[in-house]
Please model this.
Amino acid sequence: MLFDSIVYGPIHSRRLGVSLGMNLMPIDVKVCTFDCIYCECGFNQAVLHPTLPTRKQVREALEKTLFPYSSTPLPPIDVITFSGNGEPTLHPDFLGVIEDTCALRDRYCPQAKVSVLSNSTQLGRAEVVQALQLCDNRILKLDSAIDSTMQLIDAPVKKDLTVAEIVNKLKVFNGDFTLQTCFLRGKVGDVAVDNTTEEELTAWYKVVKQLKPKQIMIYVIDRATPVKTLEKISKEQMETIAEPLRKEGFDVIVCA
Model:
């Protein structure tokens, strides 16, 4: 499922409420630094020079959508969410886009939060960190604390990417972010994958306690996935995963 416009929705997000979606990637192809086995947008496709919307195009599309909220009693938007057809922080003018978005939000829809769903791979770029610090919600992915499982689930384009590298980058926010993890099990080809095992959870809990995020969002697959042999984790098991962290005072949201 690809989003065919820069601005889409509002839609009801099980994680964020009434969400106005923002897509900074092409409308006809997914462009991402991960190729996750559960991504609703499918797999990456080889595109030599993908066409991205300009900062001006994004600003104009968002203003056109938000303007009616300043003069018409429309149902309120809870959040403006950057996700779309790939990794939003790949946009070369991501900082400028976020600056424009915050300004337009303040003018037309001040109750809405600005959120970014990101896989954390671009945190080595100072302007991306700066942009994320302007947002209300930085929702940053870590699907496993074990390298082999992270590689299997997320299939990073950078083949030598490690969990330690991601974790070190996440430390820049000093816990002021939401850690996002998708729990699943199944097979990738002939290889079993399951990030709910005791070994996986022990490693994941350790990283969570190291990073101390202000919020943890754990969720299950909810739509069609490009790998068809994946299983949805039960709500009961997800609550069991959350419980040890809640007992230690962490704010854990279960979306199942």
